[in-house]
């Protein structure tokens, strides 16, 4: 792969640009680089396997310390439902190890021969839910799945505290080696809708089983989404251990996605389509009407940037019910001033003057006070529209009752990812998920390609209801004039009881910091450090554990790689 990478580097720029326009070729190349350990500091396959092997030793040690001395008399029982029969023998053989902890096993599908004495064959998941002993929780797995040694102990322990629990998973290769760990985030409703990321290793409490039994559900992923939609108070908990070892099946994964997509389409509130290329559901939420969106663009001079930004909005955006508020923060270049005067003549554009030193928070708060829209959009002057339906998707999301801030997929000028959601903890503060990944790369567990919930999104392109903006008092002008104001704002909006969201379908360029340059002066560095310290103090609990991330993934790079051996030891010692 080093030879291939070197050869690509020798190609003429025009040829490389043409090759980059081929989405499938670009994705294949970037994924090959990642597998070879040549991609954004991502470790090689050999190193990843060694790191995961080390992780499993630490996990086994941690769980052994919790449960090794548990007497047989203290072991509670659990129902197990196995979905499908394709690899049933493997699962049945594995379950023999846990007879003392299993009340009964149900298999969804026709069972011709069984290695387990107390197995009941049922026709559907709904039938299994109705047949389960209502005094015990039920674990749902797929045929071919096997369990880690203390999996049932951990599920039973968590069952007392939640309605639904799910765990991280991995795969067993042809040599029987555990590989490809899937380290999942905490409950992430919109990620579930777009990727069905929870699709095995799911524990359902008896109370929720009764609710689900009357619904026609066909997949485990659908069980989870149905419970969330039907029971507003349902609690869904995540166990950050790889407790289930699964068979890799693309067909079964697609069936999980399609079951969720069909549900959404039947409900009428959204249009869901399955992307065959990215293997995710793209969900367009309907609005009763097109709310007016006020797009607020701060600038000082920057004629060419502003022109590219506003021209792209006006020429490419399908969604038409918007106004543009250009906030001029003391422009002093004649060309920019004259251009802004011509912009002010356009019916959908207003130019407002904001004198004084640069304070990003204050400028945007000023803009929102003058906005007429039900929705406000914070837009940097170096943003340029790529996808014509960006505002259609984002407005659909932001008008949902349970959604707060909505961010977009932002690209650097060369097509690499600049922003695809904010993760708390990167760099000790906050950073951008999948930063520097290629545009068409699916990301870790398809999370770059999938719309989902993040704790925060960047205000370089952010939509929020004006009512939510006002409810939290806008951006923090006093403590966060330049950096981290968007992160702080999103976290305060989240405290209103709504979710923030990264919209993968909304793609725009962000020619980052072109207008102001880099913060490298001593004054700016000092200010940045003050604002970072403020964020770290105020939001230490989220930085310690961002629910949109996984504690087993590194915070040293923004690439979703497994923690290093040193990081793993520190983490598991804290469990």
UniProtKB/TrEMBL annotation:
| Single GO MF annotation | transferase activity
| InterPro entries cross-referenced by the UniProt entry | Glyco_trans_2-like, Nucleotide-diphossugar_trans
Which UniProt keywords are given for this protein, alphabetically ordered? Transferase
Report which superkingdom the organism of origin falls in. Answer: Bacteria
* Cited Pfam families: Glycos_transf_2
Limits of the Glycosyltransferase 2-like domain: 294-445
Q: Where are the transmembrane segments?
A: none
CDD domains under this entry? GT_2_like_c (cd04186)
Protein name per its UniProtKB record: Glycosyl transferase family protein
Q: Tell me the organism's taxonomic lineage.
A: Bacteria, Pseudomonadati, Pseudomonadota, Gammaproteobacteria, Alteromonadales
């Amino acid at each position: 792969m080093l030879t291939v990478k070197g050869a690509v580097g020798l190609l003429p720029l025009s040829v490389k640009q043409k090759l980059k326009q081929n989405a499938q070729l670009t994705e294949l190349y970037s994924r090959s680089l990642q597998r070879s350990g040549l991609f954004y500091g991502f470790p090689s396959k050999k190193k990843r396997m060694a790191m995961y092997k080390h992780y499993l030793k630490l996990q086994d040690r941690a769980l052994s310390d919790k449960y090794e001395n548990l007497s047989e008399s203290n072991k509670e029982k659990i129902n197990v439902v196995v979905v499908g029969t394709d690899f049933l023998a493997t699962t049945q053989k594995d379950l023999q190890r846990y007879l003392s902890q299993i009340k009964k096993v149900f298999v969804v599908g026709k069972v011709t021969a069984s290695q387990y004495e107390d197995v009941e064959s049922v026709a559907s998941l709904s039938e299994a839910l109705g047949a389960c002993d209502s005094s015990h929780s039920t674990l749902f797995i797929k045929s071919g799945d096997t369990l880690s040694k203390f999996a049932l102990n951990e599920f039973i322990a968590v069952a007392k505290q939640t309605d639904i629990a799910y765990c991280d998973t991995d795969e067993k290769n042809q040599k029987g080696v555990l590989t490809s760990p899937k380290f999942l985030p905490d409950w992430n409703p919109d990620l579930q809708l777009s990727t069905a990321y929870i699709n095995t290793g799911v524990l359902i409490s008896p109370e929720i089983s009764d609710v689900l039994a009357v619904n026609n559900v066909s997949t485990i992923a659908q069980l989870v989404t149905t419970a969330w939609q039907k029971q507003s108070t349902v609690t869904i908990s995540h166990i950050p251990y790889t407790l289930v070892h699964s068979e890799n099946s693309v067909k079964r994964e697609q069936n999980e996605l399609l079951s969720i997509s069909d549900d959404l389409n039947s409900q009428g509130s959204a249009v869901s389509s399955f992307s065959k290329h990215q293997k995710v559901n793209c969900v367009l939420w309907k609005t009763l009407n097109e709310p007016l969106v006020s797009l607020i663009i701060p600038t000082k001079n920057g004629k060419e940037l502003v022109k590219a930004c506003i021209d792209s909005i006006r020429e490419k955006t399908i969604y038409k019910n918007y106004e543009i508020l250009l906030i001029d923060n003391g422009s002093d270049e004649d060309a920019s001033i004259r251009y802004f005067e011509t912009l002010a003549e356009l019916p959908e554009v207003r130019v407002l003057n904001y004198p004084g030193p640069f304070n990003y928070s204050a400028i945007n708060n000023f803009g929102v006070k003058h906005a007429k829209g039900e929705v406000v959009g914070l837009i940097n002057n170096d943003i340029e529209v790529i996808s014509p339906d960006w505002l259609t998707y984002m407005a659909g999301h932001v008008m949902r009752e349970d959604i707060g801030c909505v961010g977009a997929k932002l690209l650097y000028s060369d097509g690499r990812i600049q922003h695809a959601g904010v993760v708390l903890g990167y760099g000790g503060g906050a950073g951008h998920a999948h930063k520097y990944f290629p545009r068409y790369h699916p990301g870790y567990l398809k999370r770059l390609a999938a719309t989902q919930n993040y704790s925060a999104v960047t205000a370089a392109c952010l939509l929020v209801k004006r009512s939510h903006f006002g409810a939290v008092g806008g951006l923090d002008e006093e403590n966060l004039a330049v950096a981290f104001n968007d992160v702080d704002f999103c976290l305060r909006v989240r405290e209103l009881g709504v979710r923030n969201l990264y919209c993968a379908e909304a793609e725009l360029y962000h020619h980052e910091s072109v207008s102001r340059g880099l913060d490298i002066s001593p004054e700016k560095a000092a200010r940045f450090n003050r604002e970072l310290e403020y964020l770290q103090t105020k939001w230490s609990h989220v930085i310690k554990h961002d629910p949109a991330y996984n504690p087993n993934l590194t915070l040293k790079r923004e690439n979703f790689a497994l923690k290093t051996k040193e990081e793993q030891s520190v983490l598991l010692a804290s469990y």
